[in-house]
Amino acid sequence: MFYWVMKRIFLGPVLKLLFRPWVKGLDNVPENGPAILASNHLSFSDSIFLPLMVDRPVIFLAKSEYFTGKGLKGRLTALFFRLSNQLPMDRSGGAASELSLQAGKDVLNSGGLLGIYPEGTRSPDAKLYRGKVGVARLALQTRVPVVPVAMIGTEKVQPIGKRLPSIRRIGVIFGQPLDFSRYYGMEDDRLIQRAATDEIMYELMRLSGQEYVDEYAAVVKARLDGKGPGTVGKVKAAEEAPSDIADDKDQPKEDGGAGSGAL
After folding, report:
1. DSSP labels for 33-66?
2. Fewer CB near the terminus (10 Å): N or C of the chain?
3. Measured between alpha carbons, how far is residue 257 from residues 77, 162, 217 in Å?
4. CA distance 20 to 37
5. What contacts 70, CB < 8 A, 6 or more positions away?
6. pLDDT confidence of residue 196
7. What is the DSSP letter of 9?
8. Which range, of 62-76, 96-110, 244-258, averages the lowest pLDDT?
9. Which whole number is the average pLDDT over 243-253?
10. What is the arithmetic mean of pLDDT over 120-125?
């Protein structure tokens, strides 16, 4: 109810009036049945504008820390994330990540739309970075189509380091659903996972017009933050985890806010 009221009555109409978002290819989103919406990630506001343009509810996976905060602020953040159609994703690896991956499967098995950012974190410079194979693994295991989604101009609405958004027009392009049925039965093959993920990223590059960088965005961020080779290596190893599919939702740390959920 909270999700519907905010999207249809309060927040949704105001955002459409202010930002005048344009959309292409909306008919590529299935009217019913399960699908993964795989999007590039330029801004924290992507999680607001993407589902705003889709009639059906879109459920995102967010890192579990946002559901276990302490104090009043932490509890309010956790409540908002739960009420705004987001599910916790444990990114610590191993059995914990596998259990969290099941949450995404449950959404798809129940016929829902699951929103995923294959890059795993926002682009530090508006370029498109290497996708993590968790999205392909999930698509192959559940045998659902993947709809590539290109967010246009959202990095200018809310650049990294800026708390309040700028009012300017943004766009959303929904590409044709990608069918990976030729890979069914091979979902545990790492090379197949990488091939399917790279196909998704190619479509995102084509739709968005972004420059593609064959490196993980989190690794680039670690390097830009001055982290040593050992730390950068650990980040790279973590990004290779096949079950990691959640956006790290790093806006609160960088911008000082409490974060925002998807509509």
Report:
1. S-EEEEE----TTHHHHHHHT-SS-EEEEEEGGG
2. N
3. 10, 10, 22
4. 22
5. none
6. 98
7. I
8. 244-258
9. 53
10. 92
